[in-house]
Structure formats: structure tokens, C-alpha cells
Write a structure and sequence with these properties.
Radius of gyration: 22 Å
Structural class: alpha/beta
CATH topology of the largest domain: Rossmann fold
Bound molecules: guanosine-5'-diphosphate, magnesium ion
Distance between the termini: 30 Å
Oligomer: single chain
Shape: elongated
CATH class of the largest domain: Alpha Beta
Largest sheet: 8 strands, mixed
Strand content: 5-15%
Number of domains: 2
CATH superfamily of the largest domain: P-loop containing nucleotide triphosphate hydrolases
Number of helices: 11
């Protein structure tokens, strides 16, 4: 049973290859890559397949959805990601100010390039980047924010790949207007569950009760206090998941006609509140979990 449910959600290697080829092709046109990672699941949004393709490029990691994740964990993750020539920043795209922070960071690369070219007597340099990330991580939101800030409309690039257009953000920086979409890679069942918990992959792919069990074991381990605050309950580590569901269902009136607890509805509501930060700011994949 366990292995069966996960088997179906492995992407065909062909799909992964196609997505990667598209990215490799466009990669030739840029100086560096902006990799978006969901700060709540930085491991599962870090596709090792892609990381291999972009290993020779400089990277700016943006840990997105700062408003939904555990600040302390995001800071630790940022430290881990900022190494060699790579930069990292924790971002909340709901806050417009974030764009300036990102541009300040990118200035580091611009200055490096300027310095290199100045030696050759070239004064005006510009730098180009593309955005990559798994679905729902905030790629479109970010590109739209950049487009609003830009000084020029996207323009077609004659001669090069026809489909590539650039957003001229300022005189030194251009951003490819279409992101590279990554398929999340399910390294293991845990990864699949984490992606399903946040709705990155359809929750129907895993049985809802299994998802709830995983959610509760995570909540019990790290955030029972916040959970109790949200539902005005006093659950302890000893309480069984069925009991927790029953209590919340009754409080919310999620009872069927025949007086049965509507488990499905209750789980869906709790999951939805979890995803939207209503229960609290949570990081599922924590720095002590694994090394990246
Ligand atoms: N709370 C929050 N939501 C965000 C943030 N960035 C993006 N979103 C939301 O996440 C969802 C997916 O964003 P989108 O840009 O379409 O992701 P894409 O699939 O990578 O292009 C949308 O509902 C966005 O409004 C963020 O920093 N915080
Ligand atoms: Mg999008």
C-alpha cells in the first residue's frame, strides 16, 4: 500500500529531461540563475537534477513566502545556501519593498562583472538572469513585480531563440520574462508528502487521512502550542489524530446528516489553514533534516 501510492507520483524521466533541456538551452543566454525555493520546503523545492545543470552558473537563491515560514529556520537555511559565489535572500513577494533588496543583492554580481570588463576598457556592462523553480513557488509573482519596476517593455531578441523576451529592469540588469519550470523531484515518500501538504502536488495523490497523520505528527513535534491557540483546544502529545479531528469537527459544526463527523471536510479545512499561514508560520523541512 505504502509503495503503491508513491509509485504513481514519480514523474516520467522523459518529462524531467524535457524540462531540463528547455532550461539548459536558455541557460546559455544568462549570467546567473535566480532559484526560487519555498522557504517551508526548501529541500523538496531544490531539484537535484536542475542543480546539476546549473552547477557552473552563479545562483541567487530566493527563499519565498517568508510570511508563511519559521523565521529562525529561514535564517539558518539562508546561511547554508550563501556559499561560494552564491547569494541567498528570504523574501515575501506580498511586500513590494523586497524588490529593492533583491536588486541590491544582484548589484554584487553587476559590480563583479563591471570590474572584470573595466580591465578590458569596457564601461557599460549589463547582466542577465533567468528564474527557475517548482510550481507555485512564486515565479510569476516575482517576474510580474520586476516587470512593474522595469524601465523598458520586454523586447524580442532578434536572432536568438525566438521565444525569449527580456524585461529591462534597469540599465544594468535584464530578466528573462519566462521562468524555467521544474518538476519537483520526489526523492522519497517524505518529500512527496511535504509537497502535498503545501498543495504543490495534488493532495488526491495521497490518501487524505495519511496526509493528516503526517501533518499532525509534524505539528505535535514542533507547533502544538500554535495549533491549540488556533483551534482553542488543549490537545496533548498523547491525543490520537481521530480524537483531534472529532473535537475540531464538532467545534466547527462539520457533522454529517447522520450525525457522523465529516472527516474529509475537517481535514481539508485544517490543511487549507495550514497552507495559508492561518495556524502559524511553519517550516516543514528544517536545517537539521538534511544537508544541501
Ligand atoms: N503568502 C505568500 N504568497 C505568495 C508569495 N509569493 C507568491 N505567493 C502566492 O503563491 C501562489 C503561487 O504563485 P505564482 O507566482 O503563481 O507561482 P509560480 O507557479 O511559481 O509561477 C500565488 O497565489 C501567489 O499569490 C509570498 O511571498 N507569500
Ligand atoms: Mg507561474
Amino acid at each position: 500500500m505504502e509503495n503503491k501510492s508513491i509509485k504513481n507520483i514519480h514523474w516520467f524521466p522523459g518529462h524531467m529531461k524535457k524540462a531540463s533541456n528547455l532550461i539548459s538551452e536558455k541557460l546559455k543566454l544568462v549570467d546567473f540563475v535566480i532559484v526560487l525555493l519555498d522557504s517551508r520546503i526548501p529541500l523538496s523545492s531544490y531539484n537535484p537534477y536542475l542543480m546539476d545543470i546549473i552547477k557552473d552558473k552563479k545562483k541567487v537563491f530566493l527563499l519565498t513566502k517568508e510570511d508563511l515560514s519559521d523565521e529562525e529556520e529561514s535564517l539558518k537555511r539562508k546561511e547554508k545556501l550563501s556559499k561560494d559565489n552564491d547569494l541567498a535572500l528570504i523574501v515575501d513577494f506580498k511586500n513590494q519593498k523586497v524588490i529593492n533588496d533583491i536588486l541590491n543583492l544582484i548589484n554584487i554580481y553587476i559590480d563583479e562583472k563591471k570590474e572584470k570588463y573595466l580591465k578590458k576598457g569596457i564601461k557599460n556592462v549589463s547582466i542577465r538572469a533567468m528564474v527557475v523553480g517548482i510550481p507555485n513557488v512564486g515565479k510569476s509573482t516575482f517576474i510580474n513585480l520586476m516587470a512593474k519596476k522595469s524601465i523598458a517593455l520586454s523586447k524580442n531578441e532578434p536572432g536568438v531563440t525566438k521565444s525569449v523576451r527580456w524585461i529591462k529592469v534597469n540599465k544594468n540588469f535584464e530578466l528573462m520574462d519566462t521562468p524555467g519550470i521544474l518538476l519537483p523531484q520526489f526523492k522519497d515518500k517524505k518529500s512527496a508528502i511535504n509537497l502535498a501538504l503545501l498543495g504543490t502536488i495534488k493532495e488526491e495523490i495521497l490518501p487524505l487521512d495519511e496526509l493528516f497523520t503526517s501533518l499532525m505528527s509534524f505539528i505535535k513535534k514542533y507547533y502544538l502550542k500554535e495549533f491549540n491557540l488556533r483551534y482553542k483546544t488543549d490537545f496533548t502529545l498523547l491525543d490520537k489524530d481521530e480524537y483531534i479531528l472529532e473535537v475540531i469537527a464538532k467545534k466547527r459544526g462539520f457533522i454529517n446528516k447522520d450525525n457522523q463527523v465529516d472527516n474529509e471536510k475537517t481535514i481539508k479545512v485544517i490543511l487549507n489553514e495550514f497552507r495559508n499561514g492561518i495556524i502559524g508560520k511553519f517550516t516543514i523541512e528544517r536545517v537539521e533534516d538534511a544537508n544541501i
